[in-house]
Amino acid sequence: MATPTPSQSLALILLRASLSRSLGFSPVRSTLSDVISAPPTSCSFGAPLIMPNGVLKLSVNLGKKTAANPSGECLAHVTTSSDFRAQLLSLVQSNLDNLVASDLPVTNRRCTRREYEAVNGLALGMNGGTIRTAKKKKKKPKKDEDGNVIPEPPYDAGDDVLYVTRVDGVAYGVGMSPSAGRTGAAGRITVATGEKDSQVTVGRYIEVVVKVQCEVQDGEGGEVEEGIEGGGWETEVDGSMGVGGEVLMRKEVEEIAEKVEEMEVKEVKGEMVVNPWDVSGKIDYNKLVEQFGSVRIDEAMLERLLATVKKIGKVTELHPWIRRGIFFSHRDLSRILDLVDAGKPFYLYTGRGPSSAAMHLGHLVPFMMTAWLQRAFDVPLVVQMTDDEKFIWKGEYKDGDDNLDYFRGLTRENARDIISCGFIKEKTFIFSDCDYVGSMYPNIVRIWKSVTYATAQAMFGFNKHNIGQPAFPAIQAAPSFPSSFPVVLGQGRDSEMACLIPCAIDQDPYFRMTRDVAHKMVPRTHPLGGKPALFHSKFFPPLQGASGKMSSSDDNSAIFLTDSPSQIKQKIMGHAFSGGHETAKEQKEKGADLDADVSYQWLRFFLEDDEKLELIGKDYGSGSGEYWATGMVKKELIAILQDMVAKHQERRKEVTDEVVDEWMAVRKLDF
Ligand code: TRP
After folding, report:
1. Domain identity same for 229 and 299
2. Which of 97, 169, 175, 458 is the most buried (most CB within 10 A)?
C-alpha cells in the first residue's frame, strides 16, 4: 500500500479514535484476544487501507462468539440493521467534525520499532504499511552458539522507523509516516455512508468497516521529535478522550441492538455465508456439499476420471487441482463420463463477471482448470462475460451518463487475461452478454417464465434494489443449454448435447435454479434431462487468511496479474498470513498450522511437484528440515508466483485487440 500522506495519517488516527469512542471502546488495546478476554473495553482494528482515489478504509473487529465467550460479549448482539449502521456513522461523523473543529495540536515522534517495543512492552506486527499491535511480550532475541542473533521469520524489523502520533488525551497511533500538525489540517473528514462503503457485518466476527475521505489530501506534515520518550502510551489516552464528542456507550449499543433484533438480516452465529455475492466466515466444505446437495469427488471418481482422460489420450495424468481436492465436488459428472464413453458430445461453459480491470490469481483458477478440461476432453467451450450483471449490481448513473460501457470495456480487458490461460482457439467462444444476448434470448424468456419470483427470492434473497437483479439469474442460466448457441455450437432446440460447468462453488445457486427448469429447455431424449453438470472448486484464499475469498477491491489481499516481481515479493513477505509460530523455538517444537498458512495453501495451488509439496508440508508442519520456517516456504512461493505471473504477462502482450475480436467472433466452433 502507499505510504499515507500527512493528512491521511491524521485522518486515520482521528477515525480510529472517533470510531472506538462512538462504540464506547478504548482505542488503546488492540488484539482480538484482548477483546475476548476483557470486554467491553477494547476492540481490534485491522490495518487501514488507502484506496487509489484517496479513500481511507478502516475496519474494527468487535469480537466473536466463542466457547470462552458464549454470551457473545463485545457487541455480539449488534445486527446488520441499517438503523444501527446509520446511527453509528452519523455519530462517527460528528465526533470527527468535533476533532477537526477543535484544531488541537498533534505531536509526532520518530523512533525505531525496537525502541518503541522496549518502552511499551509490546511487540508490533507490521501490516499494510501501518503498524498493528500484537499482544506479545518483548522477547530476548534468539542467539546461536556464536552469539549471533537468529532472525525470526519472516524478518527482523527492529530497525524499521515508526512515527508515533498523539493528540493528547484524544487519540494515539503508530504508523509509517508522520501526521499533519493540527487536527484541523485535513479539512473536513467525510464518512462515506453508501451501503457498500461503510458496513456493519455480522459473520464469524462482528466487523465494522468505515471509509472516509479527507478534504485536504496532501497537506504538510507536522514537526517530528526524535525518540520515544519514557512513559507508556496507555496512560496518555485510556479513558480520557475529553474532546472526542458524544459517546455511544455499550449499553446504548445493546439497547439499539435489542430494538432492531426483529429486523435482523443475518443471525450472529459466526456461520459461513456462501452465495454468488458473499463469501465469508470459515468455510466448511463438507457442510457446504451437504447444504447444497452436491456430491463430493471421491477416490472412485478420481480413478474413473483418470481412466477416461487417458483413453482419450490428450493428457496422461489428472490436473493437480483434481488430485489435491481443490476441485472437490460435482453434480452429474459421472453422467458426462458416461457420454464420453458412449462417444457422445458435450461442451464446457464457464464465465466471469468483469468487475475490475485488475484480475488476480484467484480469478484464474476456474479458467486454468477449464483450459485443462478442454484439452483433456478435446471439447468446445463457451465463456460468458457478465458485463450486464456487474452493471446491474455495481453500475452508476452520474453526471448525465451511466457506466455500462465501462463494464463492456472490462469484458475485453479481462478477455485478454482469459485468452492467456491457454485455451484452444478454434474450440472457444468468449462472449459479452451485452453483445450476444440476442441469440440466447428465446431461452432466457423460457427460463423467466419457468421460475417463480418466490423461488428466485428464496434462492438469491434479492434486496429489491432494481428489477435487473431478479432478472439476471436466467441470463447466467441460458448458456447451459446448447440451443443458446445455434451458430457457435450449431445446435437447435432438438439438441441432446450435454454441458459441464467448472466454477467456484459460490456460483452453484445459479445452476441449481438452472437444473430445476432444465427439462423444459431440451427434448425429452436429452441424456441429462437438460441439466448442466457441475465441477466445483474451493475458494482461493486471500493473503490475509484462509477464510473467505480474495477480493479485487482490497489491494493487499491479492496478487494481481499485473504485479511486478518485487510487488509479489513484498506482498507475500509482508502480508501472507502465517500459520507458523512467533519464535524459532516454538516453531521447532510445534510446527506450523498448514491449514491456516496462506503460503502453504497457495503452494497447494501452484507448486506442481507433488513430492516437493509433500516435503514442504512435512518440514513446515513439524518445524524441522529444510523448510522448517515461514521464511523458506514464502521464498519458494515467491519464486513460483514471480515466474507464473511474468509468463502470463508475456502471453497477454500477444493478445491484441484484433486477437480479442477473433476469440469473440460469432462463428462455428471446430469440434
Ligand atoms: N457470475 C459470475 C461472476 O460474477 C460469472 C459467470 C457467468 C460464471 N457465467 C458463469 C461463472 C458460469 C462460472 C460459470 O463471476
Report:
1. no
2. 175
